[in-house]
Amino acid sequence: MATLTEQMSAGSARIRVDVIGKQVPEHVLESMEFLNYRLAAVAVDPKVTLGEPDLVWKLDAPALSVTWDGRTMHFEGAWAVGPIQKALISLLTLKLEDNGLHPFHSAAVRYRDRTVLLLGGESNHGKSMSQIEACRRGGQLISTETTVIDDTGVAVLGSKTVFIKNREKGTERADKAAPERGAQIFFGDTMPTWTEYADPSNVDVVLVPAIDGNFDPSLKEMIPYEREYQSLHSVQNYLHLNELLVSGWPMPLVDTVERRQSRAAFLGKFCVRPYYMIRAANPQALMDEADKVLR
Q: Is the four-CA dihedral 151, 156, 161, 162 of positive or negative sign?
């Protein structure tokens, strides 16, 4: 029996993975593309420093199973890589929270000398196209899919991949259009380019975009409850608690009452900054609305 032990990190968060079987792979994942798209700055550490595993995967077990004992995720059987990736994201998210860091399902730009968070929220229709349009207008890229924000409201990490082009087995999505098709519709065959804004920065304004060809332009400031409601959708997204890993096996309940209350308390402080719901038929009209409050 062989064991592969590997450690992964995202910022200050670290997890250890043990893979056990007669034949183990060289690495837990062949590619880190999805983790870096879905989270931010995930890397395989050169050395293992953690004394206990956060995920144990027994490859040769006769049947699929996944359990959570409050400390470690246990996978048994010949799982596809896709569900393992989701579990790794959830475990890294827990570690990020332990370090006072909160991944938001969002894009972010440095635009008109402000850091603007484009929140995915409940519907998640328009953050990427709005980010591209803001950058086309001179904004700098902070993040594309995920923005990691600390307890004080400072954006400290961000994913940089706009579109995920390869999904591992077990994460295929028939409902997702060709990754760059939306951008081609709105921006033509030549994708706008941009520079990155690398410094940590306080989030000044939060926009919740909604793009639909039937929408008239609309800009409304959100009340406190709406702000926290939409933001909770965004941060809860990384625990995958509403997802089926494989038929018969949902993501284990890795959350706790204490964590949920702590998360809500953080959002109560974070959501005091300006929040706006913006609707439009396309990203150009949406950013025209945003410019009314960002000039």
A: positive
